[in-house]
Predict the structure.
Amino acid sequence: MTKTALITGITGQDGYYLSKLLLDKGYRVVGLVPPGRLGSVSKLDELADQVDICPVALTSADELIEAVYSLQPTEIYNLAAPSFVPASWEDPLGTLDLITGTATRLLKATRQLGLSTRFYQASSSEIFGEVLSSPQTAQTPFRPKNPYGAAKLHAHWTMVHHRDRYGLFACSGILFNHESPRRPPRFVTRKISLAAAAIKLGMRDRMSIGNLDAKRDWGFAGDHVEAMWRMLQADKAEDYVIGTGVLHTVRDLVSAAFDCVDLDWQKYVEVDSTLVRADEHFQLVADPTKAKENLKWQPQVSFEKLIDTLVTSDLRRLEAGKISPTGAAS
Ligand code: G4F
């Protein structure tokens, strides 16, 4: 029988890679998209015609129950979330409602309908926040430092409560940074790859950046969505930390990107103190041992390969006039 996967946040980076993976495996893929955002379905490019789209207000418990009941999904992947961390300071309550509200309503719908649907909750390394030890595992204490991390933690606990109390097959993937050419350019990887490509092509002459010493565990989005799927195929519902286990600085990132286009980054990059985030002295780095052992999951794309892919993609899209040197689609 054909399996049905229901995905919220299908038009985002992870939604694209997860849809591709599931379609390749023969799933029927259904995206729950708010009626006001149906235009964003075109972001799925060649996949747009291969998935089904169900217009649903994620803020409506009734609409979600109806959608889950009529679709009877084998698996639900709850990816929908505002994902740019600094923006969560501007609208903490909206961030909380979108992240926690959607997770809670979907979990409640699954429980009330008595379905055996398996549930994936997209969690984030931001729930660890001000860590006291590195690397992090699913047992590391959670100390989020921003409204985004706090909202993700609330959604995580809501999922755990539904698993413990009602026996739902539900799990959280606590994902560290994962990137691709589909990342919007406000995130640091695409910001840098786009700048390096645009400067190489003579379309820009410099780039402003925040904290060059900030460190992250950067992996490839295509690898990380594979872990999501594997979590729902396991015998037991458990939470997993998903990351490469390797830390790099933003300086490493800039240097690797400009190396790809044979430029000396120090001639083009300037620090803008307004872009430096407060309270970022802690080291968020995954210990993915459990995922490697239980799920046989292993990241395939190295940091260097990832950056090369981003820069090459931005060079091509700029040359083809598909994006502007500052990133907007054109
Ligand atoms: O690319 P970023 O904006 O991603 P961030 O904040 O780590 O969050 C991403 O990963 C999380 C973990 O998976 C997700 F939960 C979240 O939704 C999102 O996908 O920033 C990465 C690092 C930070 O340390 C930031 O301070 O880069 C540093 N940085 C330095 N200069 C900058 C800049 N980040 C941005 N966006 N722009 C800069 O100019």
About this structure: The chain has two domains: 4-175, 185-217+247-285+301-319. The first strand starts at residue 4 and ends at 8.
